[in-house]
Amino acid sequence: MNLLYALRSLRLFSQKEKLAPLFTSWGESLDPDHVLEEYPRPQMVRDSYINLNGYWDCRITDLKKHTNRYHGKILVPFSPEAPLSGVGVQLKPSETMFLERFLSVTHLPKNGMRCILHFGAVDQRACIYVNKEMAAEHNGGYLPFSIDITDYLKEGDNLLTVMVQDKSDTSYHSVGKQKLKRGGMFYTAQSGIWQTVWLEWVPAIYIKEILLTPQYDKETVHVSIEMNRPLPVCHNDNMVYCHVTDADGNIISKGICTNHSDSLCSYSCYCDIDHMRSWTPDTPYLYHLVVYAGEDEVTGYFAMRLFSIEPDAQGLPRFCLNHEPLFLNGVLDQGYWPDGLYTAPSDEALIYDIRMMKDLGFNMLRKHVKIESARWYYHCDRLGMIVWQDMVSGGGYHAPLMTWIPALVPASKIYFDDRLYPLLCRRNPRGREEFIQECRETVRTLRCFPCISTWVIFNEGWGQFDSQKITKLIRELDSTRLIDSASGWFDRNQGDFKSEHNYFDKQFVVPSQRAFVISEYGGYACPIKGHISTQAVYGYKIFRSLDAFQKAFHQLMKEEIEPLKAEGLCGAIYTQVSDIEEETNGLLTYDRKICKL
Prior knowledge:
By secondary structure, this protein is an alpha/beta fold.
């Protein structure tokens, strides 16, 4: 072990230095009148929608003190902490933010149509008012939610108000890497609306959800449809049906959906896929599907692929795609932007990160303790990038136990009973219940994306608890994907992977009956003058020139990672896609203007 590098990485104190302005090229050319206008939900598309991104009125106030700290405009969907929002104010746990705009309704439909208001994500607690009447409340900063606001609307201008509160890292709520006092491997906390807001007018009886589950070995796809309420009984038995089309738009399969469940709102069918084309990173073939249900019509897509762990000729467990062994050459992706924080400044920016990693030879991204917008997963689907999806970490963080000891002791030798809740900062029962519910919602929300191969439940013991029980739960929710139950350390011998983080030792394989992965390694820092937001540097090994960085990177890959494949290494995830604030260990600079390789 390189003790010097390990000790340097233990520096977790917060930074008081103000971040210097840093913008991506997409942020520099952003048109406030045309912000993230792409259809926000590619896996379930209707013909039209109303995008509500743009300038909203904003007020940040302390309700107890009756004082305003900010009163002006905010560019939605950027958080007030993000430079692109135009606000530049950190929402404090004691404060409340009010965001308002008008919705114009020229006339209310007489045929029973409903108006659905969609939020991609609001961090952390949101109360939604229409014309000063409370329409809904939502807790949790990472998952989408929708509200039927039809009964609150009137003809003419309607006032939409979103009231936001964010406890950030002062509570047990899931926050990922956000921290009010940023520093080291923790970053600027953000709040408020950070994904697209949009409206849809739908029929009185409409499609709420579609789940397309490929059954690869049977060359068929299961289509599951959830309606908002039952369709009326009539003489037409084919009220819910679907068409599968190939990439050229030709209909290749048809299905008539029937009700086979206890719920009268649920319909399903199977569509056989003749001459099936498999999805792989090299050939990311997508099928499209149109669902017709009563007066509603939506378009989605799916891919035919299968993720599994299977033994190779030597009996070593291997990650397989479509029954073929595939080495997962991955990168840790935290999804931070200098100008938008959690929000990419454009759709092109999302695409850039994925394509750059593919061009560098990687075939997998581990989305780290964050849930992205639906369009990010869509681009991974169509560009051919496998995704490991983390659950968003919550609870507390005990630095000596969760970082210092594992940094100095081989992770494979550390064992803690995660049913001892105070030990890993999960004392609060409401926090435990909330995390389990968010696991359920995360799987339900993201299971439609073909690119996701693996659910990662806990990272390095952060808020870890009852991992055996939660692993079983997620297996029941989605049996089609693999599970990394404890990434890094505190393994309880469950899940599909033996998963190690190794930043300081020479890379090695731990023999296991499960597939072995190095789920984090590298972290080589190389700050590039003119492309950093702070002079402070955090990383696991620091290089002051690109030549030295490139030489060390290629040496690491050639001499340490490559030889381990024969010993059973199934995947390795390099830290990380881009620099983030003082953590300058990205393959790209924080502003995405330089690729260090």
